[in-house]
């Protein structure tokens, strides 16, 4: 079966999102494609609809935002665990994000048969910072999104190193074909700057979302933060 991970831009009509797609067979997820820059709701849906046997989609975004103000329950629950690990969530609500791009995507995915959090075809939310902490047994958030350029490059190299180590996982191997190895190449990352650096970051985040989807599909142990009605995030347990 095929799965997708999406690093979704909040303003997805004007800012790029990234999508990673892979085929899950037993305890291996074969990375088949990474689309690092895709703009707009319809292009995202067209890309997903072109994937045969797509079974599940994880999205780094709030797919349900029922609250007008404050934090969602999932964010409050996550913050109790991850705030002291430098991985707390920002609030999402209707006042901050009216007519949210992420919610519109979720509604369109529902129309395509991907039910929120329920089988057989499903969509759900992913929080890469928490996934990375648990998958790799980190003590705190991996810093690769903020800071000076040199700090972001160093963090992204570390993220690529961690993802490459999944090629040896006894729980779920990440298989990376030669044509996609440049996203994980240390020397290539060190030469990036500006939008190219951000684009590669988005691509790696999409891979984290995809790997989380594959773990969920394989019934790997994990924890749910939030609930089905108001929105939830599933965070997997360690795999190494």
How is the topology of this model organized?
Blueprint: E1 2-7, E2 17-25, E3 28-38, H1 41-49, E4 54-59, H2 73-82, H3 101-111, E5 115-116, E6 122-125, H4 128-136, H5 149-165, E7 173-175, H6 186-190, H7 194-217, E8 222-227, E9 231-236
Parallel strand pairs: 1-4, 3-7, 4-6, 5-6
Antiparallel strand pairs: 1-2, 2-3, 8-9
Summarize the structure.
With 240 residues, the chain is an alpha/beta fold.
Describe the structure.
With 240 residues, this protein is of the alpha/beta class. It has one domain. The chain has 7 helices and 9 strands, in the order βββαβααββααβααββ. The strands form 2 sheets. It has a 7-stranded mixed sheet, sandwiched between helices. Strands 8-9 form a two-stranded antiparallel ribbon. α5 packs parallel to α7 (194-217). The two termini are 23 Å apart.
